[in-house]
Write a structure and sequence with these properties.
Elements lengths: L2 H15 L1 H12 L6 E9 L6 H10 L2 E9 L4 E8 L7 E7 L6 H12 L23 H10 L1 H9 L3 E7 L9 H10 L19 E5 L4 E6 L2 E6 L2 E7 L13 H7 L15
Parallel strand pairs: 1-4, 5-9
Antiparallel strand pairs: 1-5, 2-3, 3-4, 6-9, 7-8
Amino acid sequence: MNKTKLLSKLWEQYAEITPSAKKIHDLLEEKGEEIKNDHIAIRTFNDKRVNIDVLERLFLEVGYEEKGEYIFESKKLFAKHYEHSTDKNAPRIFISELELEKCSPKLQATVKEILDSCDVETFNNPELVVSGAVWKTKSLAVYNLLLEESEYAAWMYVYGFRANHFTINTNALKGFNSLEDLNTFLENSGWKLNSSGGKIKGTPAQLLEQSSTLADMHSVNFDQGILQIPSCYYEFALRYPMADGELYQGFIASSADKIFESTDVKLQEVKKPN
């Protein structure tokens, strides 16, 4: 799988369970904007069978290079970001993993049981990163057990290996002078934004501002029936120049920490438009 096919596959999977992203994409294109992706984010567990070292392989094969590491203490996450070595227009890749050893014994045992239910060859698939939920069943009891401790783990159990969000490169938009302008446009168009930590995370002084929609609600077929739970969201990033004039390329851990909450069930108080 080459870079173009990989990025296209990630978008197709994402758009299938995040119809709002396609609607926002089309809405901006109707205004004459050309949409460019700032970064794509992927989640996983730090179990050696599926950790960052495993999921990064396909990206490294198509020309990406590791560029930064991040720690999210409160959410017990570790992450790395990657940039393409030759294609400067390619989106950055952000892969995070739940640090299981910092979680409760019950959560650790549950995740191990989920992974143990899969054939060992499942994790040798070179395209694992676009394989979705590779475990056999979706148990509502397991989902609720994970959700009690970690929304991140519960999301992974339901959706598996896929893009958790895409991010619009706000710098490339011509009709908006600031991230605040874009946020206002989206809210006036009926979209609800993640207000955890403020609608805009980060500052010009930190060289990166970010905002995001709340995740779509997606119908999931559990063993005890169909339940609507948060799927994915659309993020918006505005980068500022460093002292050398080049745009900042990394991420701010404190901002990303709040962006993660876009899939939190607790924030899903108001439905987005159909």
